[in-house]
Known about the structure:
mainly alpha; 8 helices; 0% strand; globular; Putative cobalt transporter CbtA; membrane; transmembrane helix
Amino acid sequence: MRTFGSLLVRGLIVGLLAGLLAGTFAFVTGEPRIDSAIAIEEANASAHSHDAGSGHHEHAAEEEPLVSRDGQRFGLFLAASLYGVALGGIFAVGFTLLRRRLRTSSDSYAALGLAAAGYVGIVLVPFFKYPPNPPAVGDPDTITQRTVTYLLTLVIGLLAVWAGVAASRWVQRFGDLPWIRLAGGGAALVLTVVVAYLILPKINEVPGTFPATLLWQFRLASLGTQTVLWTLLGIGYAAAIDRRTPVAASSKVVAA
Length: 256
């Protein structure tokens, strides 16, 4: 029987590797879109300075960024690694606490199921309500509102997953067919999400002049980064705690 410390260390290591690979994916797919968005933001700021100069074409003093673009790119890998470690630790703790409630005799299947549930509740539910935006999009005055509503969607996403699991187990009394459980659980999850989406405020601060293609490329890159992270976390943790007995070893014992 593995100890909590052993499960936690495995979660931290798997989370670190998943974070590094997710950061690499974000660097390849997301950074070019961020550069394009920053260029648009700087062009808009320059045009605004011309307007404010009333024909004198006086450029406003440009503020130097606190961190250069090279520093931000390096920080992407650092942040992704730290996020992966933290997420891996939280995942290991969650697995330890919920293992007995996950109705499967396989630890690997339990880890994969927990990762899938986390991906739906923590990534997909918030993404479809409040998809991420690149630089040059968003009103600084609404950052507090956007932060609060995003955190609310995280909580609602986890509640929706819980509702889906609970409904799936409840409808099992009416039949043990897999599609009955799947339909009941899926209906409860979707209903919870739809109700929450209708209650939560709409936030759309994308300027009409911002390129739609660039916007969706950035959002898909962001979603892809999270997908890579959670997929690797689930598969990696399932492999790290796999308890299958090696066939070769068993054969040797029987032969002896």
